[in-house]
Every structure is written in structure tokens, then in C-alpha cells.
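Researcher: Please generate the 3D structure of the following complex. Treat every line as part of one assembly.
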Amino acid sequence: MTEERTRKVLIFPARPAEVGPVEDPLLFLFSMGQVADILKTAVIHPVPFSPPHIEGIACWRKGVLPVFSPEGCLSGGKGDDKRGKEGQGGKEERFVVVRGPGGGRQPAGAIFRARGAVELLSLPGGTAPASMPRWITRPDRVRGVYAWGERYLIVLDIVSILRDNGRD
Amino acid sequence: MIQILLFEAGGGRFGLDLSLVQTIRKMEEPSAGHPPAVPLAGLLGLSGGGGRNNPDQAATLVLSEGDLALRVDRIGGVATAHEGEFSPLPPVFGEKARRFCPRVLTDDAGALLMLDPAVVAEAAAEEASSPGEVSDRSPEAAPPPADVAAEALEARLFRRITSEEMAGQVEALIRRLSQEAAVRGVRRIRRILKGKAPGSGGGGHP
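Model: Done. Output below.
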């Protein structure tokens, strides 16, 4: 992992169903060190008895990864009404493949559905820790929330999300 | 090398060891000699399914000498796979999901979940037994007291047969028969799997 790579981050808007339409003041942030791939489409297969925030499984590089709604991870809900359907929603929708904490073998990571435009940018400066938005009912799945100008950056706790073992 | 029957239910793709499938029949075909089909989608808690979305493609899989029948939305064909091609369902899905679908296979169409037939049969038996147990606890279904006169008992039985309860009684009987058949199915599937187990990798059957 190069230093330049660690300084790059990927952001996309958080659109929790609980909040409704907003001017994208909430963004999810992943470091590029975490991101393994960005997919335009993904065929998602529902899995019986999954918690609402897991949309199913999808294939990636001959392996199988769970597909999460990032908003659902934090609200305990499913995030939107696309659960279990083929991931070809909006024009800007993407699927962000994130490396798991263990590295190479399974659990290899996860796929997060990005419902808005994905942007790659340098690590934002001028951020400050912020309080947790009220719609987040699972703060244990968050590593941090940061104010960035008029926007808020949410950093997910991938380890916590992946070790939940089927709990909502 | 394992032959796998591919099918869909409730929007999900599933697979079963083909050697455990005795018959595949169209959903509307008469089921003489076979137990009532259990909708797999409902059993797995998936939203679609039961053949309601596209009845023309719906089918019933009769497993293990006809003791367990599953209703699915569509048959997808047969595939072959080596033991090494399966991967475990990611642990994030929780114990219940991993009991029903311990393994995943990928193919050109994506991923499919391999069902554990013994666990499915157990769930089908529970599904069949639960409503029956409730009806058995109702005052109407309680056994008559020992001192009831024969005439009174006859009158009670006659009233039941001629009343609206008849449909309920028949339904409860079918449920009970289905439950017994499913329990026999679980035993037979276990016996079959036990016979296949040495050197085959097992697949995590209980």
C-alpha cells in the first residue's frame, strides 16, 4: 500500500430512508486502502434469515461476499426498498468492494451499495469529530463521525459489521 | 463430482444434491401418494415464491422416496461440481442461515445456496406440526371425558362431521399426516447422507 494510496479516500452520499431526501450533507468515507474494487453492477442473491441490513450475496473474483446497505448497517433497517434485487438502480449507483480485516481468505470482505455518486479525493483536511446523527441506532458499527465544512463524514467499522453473525 | 439440481424460490437461487430428488413435477399435477408440497420460499422466510409469481414455471420437488415435497418457483437445470468448488456461507449471515444453506457455489449466473435437506425437512415438519398443535389444544379437539355416554359421543362425532368444522378436522388430519411423513423424510435423508459421508466432505449436516 503506497503512501499516496493511504491518503486517498472514497466518499459517497449516505441516504438513509429514515432521513428522507437531503442535500447530501452525509457521506460515507472509506480509505482507498480498504477498497478492493468498485463495481457498476452486481447480481445480488437474497439469503434466507438475513438481517435487514444485509441484502444478500454477490460474486466477486470467483468468491462470494455479503452485500450490505451501509445506511441499513447504521439504522438497523434495510436502508431502502432494493433489497434482494439486481443492483442496477440509479445511474450513479455503484458497489464498493471493501477488504475484510483478515486479508486474503474468507471472510474476504464485503460489498457496500453506494446509492449516490462515488468520488475519489485526497484525505479531506479541516475535519473535526462530530456527534452521532440521531438516525444511527447502531453506533457500534461506526468508527467515527466527522464534520467537514457543512458536510458530515461517516466512517464505518468494517470489523464490527462483519463479526455481527446475523444480528440486526 | 456431485450433480446438483438448480432451482429458484422467493427470489433466491438454490441447489440440492440431485441424488436426493426423487421426482420433479409441475405444481398443478395431482399429488396422489405424495405429501402436500411445502412452499420453500415461505419456509425460508423469503418474500416471493410459492409459484405465485409465475405459476407456469412452478414445480414440486419430491425428496427421499416421496416423504418430503418442496414447492419451488422455477427449475434451473442440473449442474456438476467438485467438493472443492463449494465455499462456506460467510459467517456474517448467522447460525440459522448457515444451518439451512451451509455452502455456496458460484457459476456463470452468479451464486447459489446449497440447501441442507435434513434441516429443510426438519423445518417442514415443524411448520406442519405447529398449526396442528394449536388446534389440538382447542377445547373442541380435547378428548371426551371417560364418562361420556356412547350416545353422546356418537352425537358429538355426528355433529362434527356435519358441521362447518369438518374442513378444519380434515385439514388438521392432513397436517398431522404431513408432519409424520416429513419426520420419516428427515430420518431417511439422514440415513442417505450418512451413507455418503465418508470421504465426501460431509457438508456440515447435523
